[in-house]
Amino acid sequence: MAKIAEQERVAGPVRILGIESSCDETAAAVLVDGRVHSNVVAGQDVHRAWGGVVPELASRAHQEHIVPVVDTALREAGMRPSDLTAVAFTQGPGLIGALHVGAAFAKSYALALGLPLVAVDHMRAHVLAHFIRDDQERPVPAFPFLNLTVSGGHTLIVHVRSALDMEAIGSTLDDAAGEAFDKGAKLLGLPYPGGPQVDALAAQGDARRFRLPRPSVPGLDMSFSGLKSAFRNLVLPLRGADGAVPAELLPHLCATLQGAILDQLFTKLTLAVERTGITRIGIAGGVSANRGLRQRLAAEADARGWNVHIPPLAYCTDNAAMVAMAGDLLLRAGHIAGPDTAPRARIPQA
Q1: Architecture of domain 145-311 in CATH?
Q2: What is the pLDDT of residues 210-234, one digit of tens each?
Q3: Which of 6, 12, 217, 330 is 20 to 30 A from 185, comparing alpha carbons?
Q4: CATH code matching the domain that covers 15-136+315-332, chosen among 3.60.21.10, 1.10.12.10, 3.30.420.40, 3.40.50.2300
Q5: Whole-model pTM?
Q6: What are the two backbone dihedrals, phi and then psi, of residue 20, each rounded to the nearest 5 degrees?
């Protein structure tokens, strides 16, 4: 997520189609000069029976959904394909099969229409979701700011110097915070997706009822693998003869898990503020929809004098509006992808 050099700028209104297919949501959006005209997301219920995302099933579902999702996005925006200025797509990181579906469609669509193609880093797009405009006017963070990006696959503290200049100054050394939420939920027998279930139950529980360790990781990096193991060791002895955790314990276990995850996130975020002197804070990624995280961020902001920016829920989880927003800014800076641009399961965030 290093600095992207600016080239010759594109002038005039930008009507951009964004396509997102990095995991288990097929999404398309149309933005005009950064303002949302449509934002369509199709989920994939096929994974619910397996308790997690199955990559092959995700790829097949993307193939089924992508044409109707794009058609719906254009119809809701009141546009024809010929009205578009460019097509942006998620290049990575993500599930490689899922990414291939979105990339192949975007490249073919742009080629057929004679439009420029823009390849977008999924994690950069999450950060740039702060700059999406819609019918709800809200302030955008001034540069530079720190962004806590938390999802099922990534946990990053990003120093955002500009829309094209970002640096990950802290990241998880192993598992992501979102994965810790989901795996914890699965241990508790909660339905997929588990993160929102943990969040809802945690609001009813006492985080002091049980104890979990807090890892000691140098600097701004984080670790959630040991926390997952510790939570497993806590939960397994509590299961009854039927293998289920007693219902009356679920809220307390969820509160304990959520508290341990949030403690680590905010310990590192506070350290990042101290090291950089930057008090403008943003959050992004699917886990930024977590109500406990949002409440904790608001409380920390009041106590520490942080200037906090929280995007609407629609732009926190995977969506195509953020891809189109990133594509708009990249296009204006002259960054056009060639027809040989390939999706990438991993993109270094340093």
Answers
A1: 2-Layer Sandwich (3.30)
A2: 999 999 999 999 999 999 999 999 9
A3: 217
A4: 3.30.420.40
A5: 0.92
A6: -125, 130
